[in-house]
Structures are given as C-alpha cells and as structure tokens.
Amino acid sequence: MRNPTTFRRGGRKRKAAARLRQSRDLESIGESLSEQDGHSSNGPEESDNGDGPPNEGPSDLPSEPQSSNTPFFLDQHFPLDQGPFTGHLNTRIFHSYELLGQGLTTGPPYPSFQTSQPQLPMLQLFDQNPIPQDDINTQSTSTPVSLGDVSAGSLPLPGISELISHTSSPLDTPGQKRKITRHLDILPDPALHCELLQHWTLNLCDCLAPVPGHLNPLRSAMMPIALEGSRTDSEKSTGATALFHFICSASAFHLAKKRECEESKGSLENVALEHHNIGITHLAKNIQLSKNGADCVSLLASIIICIYNEAVTLPTTFWRLHFRGAVEWVNHIDPQVWHKSDAASSLYQMFRSMATVVQAQLLFDSHETSYWKFANDFGPQPEPYTLYESFGLPQPVYEGLRAMNALQMRKRSSTESDPSADELDRLEMELYLSAPNRPETPTAKDYADLIYHHGCIFYYAALIHMKRNLKDMPMDAVRPLVEKSLNHLEALPACTSQRSSPMIWPVAIVAFETGDTTMQQRMLRSLAFFEERSELAIWTQITHLVKELWALRKREGANIKWHQTALGTSRLSESCRPVDACASPIARPRYGFFYVDSPELPQRDAVFPRREKSDAPCVFTKMEARALCSGAGCRKVTPIEERLIPTANEWVTRIPVQGFLAILQAIFKYLSFSKVIPQWLKNVSQSTSFVGKIIIHAVRHAQGYHNLGEEFFHLRDPALTPFGQQQCVERRKASFQDQSRFKLIASSPMMRTLHTTSLIFDDAIQTQDILAIPEAQEISDHGCDIGTDPALLKEMTLRNDWPVDLSLVPEGWNDKNLYGPNSPVTSACAARARTVRRILREKGMALSQDTNEDIHIALVAHGSFMHYFSNDWENSTTGCGTGWKNCETRRYVFQNDEWDENAWLVETEESRLARGMMGPAPSAEEQRRLYEKTMVGWVDQGLPDIRYLETASVMPMQEHSRL
Asked: For 116-134, how does the pLDDT look when each residue is reduced to its tens digit (9 = 90+)?
C-alpha cells in the first residue's frame, strides 16, 4: 500500500473521487478520495498528469506494495491484512504536531481524593438542551460535502486556526438565532454511517467485551457521549466528537474485513482512515484545552477507543509511551471529575484496569517508561466498583494486580529494595482469599454465571502470574491452578449465545502455563470457540503463538517463561545487539499478540511474527535510540505478550503512527504549562528530527560454477566463472559507476558473493571493509550453498586481497542442520532474512546520525534468499530456484520507521520500472498464492520442498541431529 502521507494524485483520481461521492452502493465503490487531496501540500508542483516523477523514496511507491509486502507464508490466515482495491488509501494523515496550540495552565497532580473535599457543580456530561429541528440545517449547503472536506485543511478547530467567529456567518446577527450544522449533518453518506453504527451496536461493541448487553460500557457509557458529539455544531471541536469519529473508524475497519468485494473493502478502509484522522485532530486539540469539567469524561472515552485502535499497529515503545502519557494526563485532572456520573466512573475504572493489565505485561522488559503510577487510588467512592460486572475483573483481583506491579517495579528499581519473600507470601495469601462470588445485583442477574466464570479465570490467572513470574516457581507448581482455570474457560460457551470475547490477559497467562498434553488440547478447543464466538482473528494468532511456546519448551526446557522468550537474532552487531538475546544455538522466536504468525509447519523451528504496518512515517525519528536506550541504536528485546490489551480487538490495520504522536504531543503541551513535565516526556519532545531514507541496493551474485547445471550443485562454496566476472564488470559500468554515496557494503560470506562484491564495488571498498553477514547465506543445503569455515574463509579473503569484516561470522555459521538457525526450512529462511533487514536498518540509522542525506547500502546475496529478503514472490520460478538473474540489482527502502520490528522493505517504483514491471506489486493474497506456486514450481525443478521439515533437506532426515 502506498504511503498515504506522501504520494501524489492527479486529476483522474480527483475525478474518481467526485464520482465516489455520488455513489452509495458499497459494493461498487472504487475509491473514497475527497477533493481536498487535490489541494494538498504539494502545492503548484502537482498537476493533472497523475503521479509525479518516480524516485527512490517511499513517496512514489506503487499503491499496493506496502500493503502486500509481507510474505504470505507469514500470514496464512490473514487476520489483519487487507486485500488490494482499485482505489488508494486517503492521503490526509494529519501532521498533527502542526495543529497543536496553546495548552492549559495547570497545577501539579491532584492529591488523593477525599470525600470531605468540596464538591464541584454537577457535571453536564451531555447537553440538556435539545436542538430544535427547525434549527438544524440538514442540507449542509455551506459545509463540507465529504469526510475529506473536514480534514486538516478545512475542519475549523478551536486553536488550530481561531474558532470560527459567529459574526462571519450571515445567520449570526443580533436578534437572529444562528442555524447550526451538526457534525452528523456533514457526513457524506448517511446510509453508510447507519450501517457502521448498526455494526458497532449489534456486533463489534460486544465482540470487544467479556460481558455483552447493557452492562458493556462501550455501549452504555460511550454511545451517549458519541451521540452528543455527533450533534455538536460542526464549527466546534469536542472530545465527544472525537469519540464519534473513532467509533465510526473502528466499525468501518472491522466491517471492511467482511466484504468480499475488494472495491467495497478498500472504500470502507478509506472511510475508516478519514474518521480516524478527524478523531485524532479533535482529540489532540481538546486535550490541550481540557479542564476539570465534563469534557474530560468524553476525552477519556476517546482516549480509550484510540488506545483500542492503535494497540494493533503501534510498536511497543509507542504503546508504552501512549499509556504513560494518558496516565500523566489523568493525574492532572481533579479526581472528583471521575465521580460525578455513572459514565465518568465507569470509564475511569475501565481506563485504570486497562493501564494495570497492560503494565503487568510491559514491566518485564525493564523500560522505565513502563513505570507509571496513578496519583490517586480509587479510594472512597460514591459509586460502586463496576469492572466485575462489565469485564469480569473482581476488585480484590484488580488490587492484587496493582500490588504485583508495584512489587515488580521495586525489583527493577535501583533505589528501592527488592520485595522480601515474606511480602510475596503475604500478597499470595491475599490473592488466595480473593475468590470471586456470583454477582447478586439485579442488573447482573442475566449474566451472573458468565461474570462469575470470567472472575474465576482472572482469579486463577493472577495466582499463576504471581507464582511463575514474581516468585519464579516451576510449571508443576501452577498445574492445579491451570486445571481449575480450564474448567471455567470451558463453562463460558453455555453462559450466553451473544457475541463476546474474554479479556486476553488472563486467558493468555493460563494458556502459556498449560503443560499437560490433555489440558493443552482442552485449551486449544477453548481458543477455537473464542474465535468463533467473537469473530476476532486474534484468537487464531494467539493459538499459533501458544503452540510455538509449547513446542519451544519441549526443545529447551519446560520452565521457560513467556517473558524470557526473546528474539534470538544470533549475531547482530554490537550497536544493535538485543540486550536480552539468548545465547542458545536455536534462535528463539519473539512473540507478540498483534503479530501474524506463519502457517502451520510440522515441527518448524521458529515463528516469524509480523507487526502490523502503519502507513505514515513517524515524525519522531531515532526517538528510542536517542532518548530511551543507553546506546545509539541499541534496542531492548521486549517480552512475549508485550502487546496484550485488556480485550481482544484487531480491527484496525492501517492506523498511522501520527495518531499516537498527536495525542502524546498534545499531552506534552498540556503539561508544559504546569512546569512538572516528566523527564521521559521531555526526552520524547527533544528527540524529534527528520532524516533521509535508507536505500538498499540488493545485488544477486554473478554466475558461479554451480549455475552451469544441477550436476554442479554438489560443489562446495564454488567460485565465479570467467563469464560471471565479466558480468560484474558490466554491472559496475551500468549501475555503480559513482560509488562515493555508498556508506556500507555488505555481503553473504560465501565465496561467490564476496568475489562479486569486490569486483562491483572496488572503489567503495578502498575506504571500508565488506561487512559479511552470515544470515544472508543461500537457503538450501546443497553443497554449493554451504559456506566455508571461518578460519579458511579468513585465509581466502586475505589471499584474494578482499577487505572483509568477518566479526559477525561465527563457528558453525555454515551448519545446515534442519533443527538449527541455518536450516533450509522456510521458517528459518524467513528468520534469517529478517535479521539481515534489521542489521542493515540499524547500521543505516547509525550512519544517518549526523546527516539528513539518503544512506545508500549495498547487499550482495543469493537468488533464493532474495525472495525472503524482499518478501516478493513474483516471477520467482523463471530461473532455477529464483526469479533473480545473475548480477541483477534492485533497490529497496524500508516501508516503516525504526519501530517496525520486522524491518519490512518495499521496492522503489524506479527499480520496478527498470526491470519491466508495470503497475503495483501483487497484493498480500496474491503473494500467498504466488508463494505456493513458487514452492510447487521449485519442487518441479527438482529442488526440495522447504515448506516442511521432512522434505526440506537434500540429505536424509537421519543425517540431521536434534540440537
């Protein structure tokens, strides 16, 4: 998918947008683009000739590659991917940092709430004055005609430009009441929005909650606020209006996944992005202007839905900072605000529980930004605790989770003493005594059994968490608790037939610690039911991740904890080595609940999850490396389950990073006038900069002797043929005459690639060494694809006068054992490709520290490997085991910023055109089919079927020993 912040649109697409606004038939919509794009920031440079001239940057990429660039073998079920559509995602991803105005002067965080404090006037949460229908202009003659027209360029928001003066309206004259046009009235397609709100009310709203119906605060507390926001004057901006747009966005994204027609799906995605952008703008502005009044309640509701949305796509650092920033904002609001209405109390308690559960997951990655604290406890409340009836979270269990978080923060603190064994025992005793009862309130009688079972699941999960993660007890110690939990999980289906979904955290905690084979089968059946009942594909992902953890324990020990399971990227350079990377010879997978798992492979050795991509470049570049880590480019490896959120939601697939940044910067503006800005937030604010692109020139090696025919495949690490050496000379003249721009030359450590590199990049390596990256080796275990031992390799490079840095090449790098990290199995190949991408990105980021220019990197590798490296399976059987010709070169840029854990690449438009590829790259679904065809085609060529462990090797299985 094309980067929606930068690509350019011509007259034809603007005309298509105009046609779209005339249509209400979702199944026939092709694009959802507003005319606002025709007046974008490109200014006079934009013409009616369509897209501007291509370049190597991400702004002119084809419309599909970025959305479909993920290799489909990582995405068998495609729970989070969207297919292609003939239109393009809307370009208005707001530069919200330009919209922020003056903040509100506040004092320090409020002290703990006391019942003796003077009461504020009763909050007017919702407008008590109904709007006369005679005063409503439903014709919208002087207002925007599409969602696009209420973008950053035209939406009148207070403080962005001044609030629109009533005197500017001919209707606003003395003695004459101005007719208002509501936000509801400027929606371009009322029929569509009826469908969106119906889908939210009847489906999605309950899919996101453990307890459906009237007890669900997503319905009971948020819908009245959203109603008020929709009725607000369109010339005014409120938190309630932001909530209305966030709800429409969530519903549109979720509904789009149900569309079979790609045009309709794409149109709904455009509508979803439009609503999200508008919601972000309203929310960012009103956070700065928030006071201790009713609008704080609607703002908190909007923050909660925004967190739900962006939980799917934002990397861990953003996720952590997002919650920390929201907690800081809440701490600066008078706590009495949250006790003035049932809705306020319900939303406040909901946010507190979300922050507590999320913090329980993030504390294990040792980032201080996870150490947030609320300035006020629940304390004495005039209203009851509602989380048990609405989310199945008993209050004593909730308090136990908070206490466990506090103890974990003490363990991580350098100034506080570790909790003693007695403290841990006392807390565990309290947890045992916190067994829930069936709710007895009249409002909960219809769901009493359901609530009780959810409460018991939380109860046992908290005890399991206590024993395994705080007291470091073995799995055998929690087996009885797991069995008890399973009984309650299996009781849920009989409690209600409505759409619902358990909160993920307790289910995941129980699943992670299920060790008995019989109980594992019971757990898998429960997970399958949750997916069927909720229609949330995240349960399929959790199932895959749980299976991977179980398989890992069989190989490496039953007592491995989920938060100890980290990405074994083997030999990253010291500047980007994960802090907690394990030393095991088997690359341990990294887990995260918002990753899409690879397809089911028998006994596969690694899982290769994919973080969902945000479509907009981050305006905070190098933030983590500069502000949050101890060394440049150093990133801590975060634990499995780092992205869990309190409820299962996965509908948003293309939410831009700017949404988070707008809110975080708004909070910064809000707090800046209080002179109590936390250091972590100062670091974020001071760490913004813009840098050039990292451009990777990928080159396949020239012809080697093994390329002469399959009868030469047995040759061990063969050299280049004379013709291959001539190919290098020709490639150098054609593509790489000026090598002064290359800051890094990298290569596979195999002889043919090192020789190719030395011949093509001879000028560049006069001032730098070739960085040998062992993970860039070819994928198979034919003799020609098995490298040379390091000692002999060093001797050969010296003999040939090749300046090669072999520091990343360890002993055993050429061991192709099926059960090791260099296995020919497709999953291991994908892991190595991801490691190479991350190494190149980290190196490029380090090289860009002192310049804003593009960083050019060359990588010389192998034909089959390049398909995993680029995630492109188009025309992959034109040659033997590859679609790359000898000495062919293609150019790539990183699809996302440095927060993308997988470092996905996209080929530049210029590169595609240079090799005769017209139009966008295949979609994700097409790539999946292409991969299957590739595997079949390679097998037809006489190559092993690397999809499966049993058929991946050219050697008999018995020659491979398990590590």
From this structure: 333 333 323 333 333 333 3
Compute the radius of gyration of the chain from its Cα atoms.
29
Listed in sequence order, the residues at least 6 apart from 519 whose beta carbon sits closer than 8 Å to its beta carbon are 482, 483, 486
Give the pairing type, strands 855-861 and 770-772.
Answer: unpaired
Q: Which residues pair with 700 in a beta bridge?
A: 861
- With 0-12 / 13-18 / 19 or more C-beta atoms within 10 angstroms meaning exposed / middle / buried, residue 896 is buried
- From the centroid of its chain, how far is CA 427? 35
Among 257, 276, 279, 277, residue whose Cα is nearest residue 268: 257
Half-sphere exposure of 83 (CA within 13 A, CB side): 17
Query: What pairs with residue 747 in β-bridges?
Result: 772, 860
Q: From CA 641, how far away is CA 542, in angstroms rounded?
A: 10
The CA-based dihedral angle spanning residues 587, 590, 596, 597, taken in that order and rounded to the nearest 10 degrees: 40
Query: Does residue 734 sit within a domain?
Result: yes
* Amino acid present at 780: S
C-alpha angle 531-537-538 in degrees, rounded to nearest 5: 95
CA distances from 553 to 283, 383, 480, 543, 963 (A): 45, 46, 19, 16, 13
- Is 743 strand, coil or helix? strand
Q: Give the contacts of 357 (CB within 8 A, at least 6 positions apart).
A: 401, 503, 505, 644, 645, 646
Which structure tokens are listed for 318?
């953003």
Instruction: Count the domains in the chain.
Output: 1
Q: Could you tell me if residue 268 is inside a domain?
A: no
Alpha carbon separation from 798 to 260, 795, 801 (Å, rounded): 59, 5, 5
Phi, then psi, of 771 in degrees rounded to 5? -85, 115
| CA–CA dist 858, 1 (Å, integer) | 25
Confidence (pTM): 0.51
Report helix, strand and coil shares of the chain as percent, to nearest 5.
50, 5, 45
Give the sign of the dihedral formed by CA 325, CA 354, CA 429, CA 389.
Answer: positive
Nearest to 567, CA basis, from 919, 839, 259: 839
Of 654, 774, 829, whose CA–CA distance to 71 is shortest? 829
Residue indicated by tokens 């996905």: 904
For the purposes of burial, counting CB atoms within 10 Å of the CB of 196, is it exposed (0-12), middle (13-18) or buried (19 or more)?
A: buried
Rounded to whole angstroms, how far apart are CA atoms 843 and 633? 8
576 versus 470: which is more confidently predicted? 470
Q: How distant, in Å, are the alpha carbons of 35, 154, 181, 320, 433 from that of 385?
A: 49, 43, 39, 26, 19
Instruction: Note the pLDDT tens digit of each residue in 632-641.
Output: 233 333 333 2
In a domain, 669, yes or no: no
Mean per-residue pLDDT, 95-122? 36
Residue-level pLDDT at 631? 30
Which segments within 607-713 are labelled E, that is strand? Answer: 610-611, 694-700
For a pLDDT cut of 70, what percent of the chain falls above it?
63
**Span 813-859, pLDDT tens digits:** 999 988 889 999 999 999 999 999 999 998 998 888 777 789 999 99
CATH classification at residue 892 = 3.40.50.1240
Vertex 633 angle, CA 632 and 634, to 5°: 95
**CB-based contact 813:777 (threshold 8 Å):** yes
Residues 508, 453: Cα–Cα separation, whole Å: 16
DSSP designation for 70: S
Cβ-count burial of 815 within 10 angstroms (0-12 exposed, 13-18 middle, 19+ buried)? middle
Report phi then psi at 861, rounded to 5. -145, -145
Residue 767: domain span: 694-959
**Alpha carbons 519 and 427: distance in angstroms, whole number:** 28
**Residue 513 located in a structural domain:** no
What does the chain come to in residues?
963
pLDDT at residue 698 tops 70: yes
Alpha-carbon separation of residue 393 from 370, 429, 855 (angstroms): 22, 18, 51
N- to C-terminal Cα distance for the chain? 41
CB 317 within 8 A of CB 628: yes
